[in-house]
Design a protein that fits this description.
mainly alpha; Arc Repressor Mutant, subunit A; about 65% helix; globular
Length: about 140
């Protein structure tokens, strides 16, 4: 594979890395799909979140979020309940089964990360994660994205 040059922008590099991650992160390896893993990780980090916050946090369309939650509920990995303070909203929580599935998936995902990020030290991986988190937080705060 050709080495990245200094003229290749970070978005192009992220897109290429994302494709490698998606290709390697199969349901057979993870036990769940990568999209389910992403949703469960968000629910772990944001306990009792609203469906709207999940939609925004995952950067997905509201209709797609409904379909994703339908699948998670059908698999017993998450639950939606009406917010008692505002019956128009749904609160979403991860079930214990979902927590166990996420733990197994994240353990399996470590092998994918080790393979794809083999060229980075542990410290560089931590820096990359921090920078990607900052970029994502900044992008999410922009109303037109």
């Amino acid at each position: 594979m050709p080495e990245a040059t200094s003229t290749t922008g970070p978005i192009v590099l992220l897109t290429r890395l994302s494709r490698l991650v998606h290709r390697a992160s199969t349901p057979d390896l993870l036990g769940i799909s990568l999209k389910d893993m992403a949703a469960l990780a968000y629910l772990r980090d944001h306990a009792r979140t609203t469906q709207q916050a999940l939609t925004e946090g995952l950067c997905i369309d509201a209709n797609y979020c409904v379909l994703l939650l339908n699948d998670l509920e059908a698999a017993g990995l998450a639950e939606r309940r009406r917010d008692p303070a505002d019956r128009r909203r749904h609160l979403v929580t991860m079930t214990e089964t979902g927590r166990e599935a996420l733990e197994r998936a994240e353990q399996a995902q470590e092998s994918v990360e080790d393979e794809i990020l083999a060229g980075l030290s542990r410290e560089e991986r931590a820096i990359l994660a921090r920078l990607l988190g900052q970029a994502l937080d900044g992008a999410i705060r922009r109303p037109n994205l």
